Amino acid sequence: MRVSQRLGRFGEDVAARHLSADGAEILARNWRCRDGEIDIVARHGDTLVFCEVKTRSGADYGSGPDAVVGRKAARIRRLAVRWLAEHPHPPAIIRFDVLSVYRERQGSVRVEHRRGAF
Length: 118
Fold this sequence. Notes:
This protein has a 5-stranded mixed beta sheet with strand order 1-2-3-4-5, sandwiched between helices. It is built from 3 helices and 5 strands, in the order αβββααββ. The chain has one domain: Trna Endonuclease, Chain: A, domain 1 (3-Layer(aba) Sandwich). Strand 2 and strand 3 form a beta hairpin. The chain is α+β, with helices and mostly antiparallel strands. It is globular, with a radius of gyration of 14 Å.
């Protein structure tokens, strides 16, 4: 596994723990179809949450939410429609979140959770 893949997996693990600690139930991780992948699908109360996770090892690449705009956000919405087609009876409320996981050089980890990011 490449360094970038390990960093991404680390970030998704941290994000899933963060969501669980916040009271969410993780329904799927790395859900795939032919059109792409959704990092995390969770249920938080009556809300179904589709999560994109961006992991950064520094500030060189900007913030996570800044990376999920335009085509990327539209692709995640399309993937959510596919997920919903395969999983009937979703909750009435659907939300798209971006979780940014920052792994600092000194080993500390910070999570920024932007609810309803797009």
